[in-house]
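Quick one from the shared queue. A colleague (R.T.) flagged Tetratricopeptide repeat protein as missing a structural entry in our internal table.

Convert sequence to structure tokens.
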Amino acid sequence: MRTALRKLYWTKVRNFTGHSWPVRGHAAVFVLLLLVFSCTKDTDEAAQFFLRGNVQLQKREYREAIRYYTEALDKKPDFADAFNNRGLAKFRNDDPEGALADYSRAIQADPDFGAAYLNRAEVRLETGDAAGSLSDLQRIRTEYQDSTYYQTRLGDAYVRLANTAQAQAAYDRAIQLKADNVEALTNRGALYFSQKAFEPAREDIEKALRINPKQDAALNNQSLLLARAGNYAEALVAVDRALTANPDQPYYLNNKAYLLLMLNRPADALPLVQESLRLDNANAWAHRTLGLYYLNQQQADKALTEWRQVEKLDASVDQLYYYLGKAELAAGNKAGACAAWQRGELAGDQQARSERAARCR
């Protein structure tokens, strides 16, 4: 997300993705632990419930934390910090919509609550609202511009908005502020990879893994670099390590399926790509892998279905039109194959150009 494997997975929004690099991070951990209230019975009780919630949050007992924060809000309905921390507990408990609502209520209660804006930006990015995320981040730029975490998230938002220059500048700043920021290194490596700057991508990914050898997004992205060089067996080892850390990540599952196809193990690849699509059916790269599987199995009609779905989801997927043409040809539609290769040639696909030159004159 994210080469032969594709999509960068950004470690928060993910690295090299689909076939992919990931960028994947965690919700901003801006938790306020102590507050000073005016001395009334309700505010005193609210403070006690709030602190109990913080204890449970630190213990990763998210449902209990949510319960205590709710008790605090019953006593003090404008308690911005309780909304913020309950939002974090909900996010970590796989309720991003609930988290988004709580962060927004924290901001309504305190329009200058910078941490709540940062946390809401995180959730907006996670749920696909990159423009909203950027808006929140710009709102707190003055306060947070010297935070490496802030700059990493800013880079992630710009990546989602296809503003590579601004993303590059933000990741550079994040790493300047903290040279061992593994997430920023992983995501900048993914950005380099997407621009076909493979040597800088390799340097960033290797540095990230020296700092944290278990960083799953970096391991996944390393597998893409290895696959691009044709080192499929080594790439498989790297993506297996990523899956050990995060076994249900759909991009990693798809990347492994692709590698298994390249290693002539289609029976092992099929259940992995099917599981990847069950988890995320909108991943064009996984449809690409399934299309390759069907093409290799000489099931042209099924391959065409997958490749046409790839085109609908993401026409920038590597070698889309080359393989779409191959599937059309295998289905007996030479005119359709030549048309696909022509579209690929216009998009700069050299393999599509070669096929068109060889078969369509």
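Confidence is low (pLDDT under 50) at residues 1-29, 33-38.
The two ends are 36 Å apart (CA to CA).
Added to the table.
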